[in-house]
Amino acid sequence: MSELWGMNRDPETRLDSEECVRLWDDPTTLRIAVTSRGSLLALQFHDDCGQSESLRLAPLSADEGREYPHMFIGRSDDGSAIMAAVYPDDELPGSTDTAEKSAEDSRRRPIGLREFGHLLSAQDCQSAWIGVALAAWHNREPFCSRCGHATELAQAGWVRTCPGCSALHFPRTDPAVITALRDGRDRIILAHNASWPEGRYSTIAGFVEAGESLQQAVVREVKEETNLDVVRMEFMDSQPWPFPRCLMVAMRSWVDEDDPHPLPDGKEITDILVLSRDEFEDKVLSGGMLLPAPVSVSWNLIHDWYGRDLSLLVSKVS
Question: What is the pTM of this model?
């Protein structure tokens, strides 16, 4: 699967409810389990030393999850279908306790997409993004915004219909910007949010407001959170972030100062660091700074600025 073009979502199949029922029982279909909070069921593989080496989405049997809503995710590289069962939060199935359980079944365990998504393959990760995003949308939007009637799942999870007024509701995505802010000496400016654990720092981020461009949102968020003025920016990447329904647009940005004095707003942002690469390394290695999860685009922004192996650096923290 090309990470640029993504998987084949096969929207035509969503419209065929009978085909989706058949596909759930098709032995070639990959059936996965998701929750609206971002939990998944995965298979864990270990290296020869017993260390966790990789994860892949655990396949459900056709009987597992049959009682829960089903969603059609798309097609794998070989053309087989991928479907998801939306489990209630905290009710994912684990490995069975029977003596007959297979080696594969014994590897099954629930994981969080935030914490472990970087260990999945590109195809598994995109399947997870889609499944969790749809599950979160269904969980948050059970009623019609036009008439207040309870809505119903349709088109294999991609639409909610209202029997009261016939309105169709589609998954929402809220755009947000996130930026690796640099000063005139190419140092990175990282912020600590008041709601985070002590020591966690990340890049500047915020939602795009009504009537606002992405560039304007970057300038405004940086000004609000650091009291610094952005003079230049460029697009780097984007990422779905279904917690609960964001599209993160990642930018590199710069302030026109060699020695900036950022001022946290004292409410959302309580501390700000301006770090050279050597200072950044020292801060991480000392255990004085926790970084974003490797699956996040914030990690990618920091890695892009750092220019060295960020995973290797973090692995050295005792």
Answer: 0.89
Cα gap 28→294, rounded to integer Å: 31
**Closest to 74 measured CA to CA, from 124, 157, 8:** 8
In this structure, what token pair is assigned to residue 76?
Answer: 């794998």
* 92/89 Cα distance (integer angstroms): 7
Task: Indicate the pLDDT class of residue 89, thresholds 50, 70 and 90.
Answer: confident
Give me the amino acid identity at 64: E
Q: Reply yes or no on whether the pLDDT at 318 is more than 90.
A: no
Question: Number of helices (H) and strands (E), helices first, in the chain?
Answer: 9, 15
pLDDT band at 98 (very low <50, low <70, confident <90, very high): very low
Q: Which residues pair with 255 in a beta bridge?
A: 230
Q: Which residues contact 52 (CB under 8 A, 6 or more apart)?
A: 44, 45, 46, 119
Question: How does strand 159-161 pair with strand 168-169?
Answer: antiparallel
141, 102, 132, 151: which is closest to 40 by C-alpha?
132
Max Cα separation, the chain? 66
Which domains are seen in the chain, by residue range? Answer: 11-92+108-140 (no CATH), 174-315 (3.90.79.10)
Amino acid residing at 151: T
Are 202 and 298 in contact by the 8 Å Cβ rule? The answer is: yes
Over range 177-191, report the average pLDDT: 98
CB of 52 within 8 A of CB of 104? no
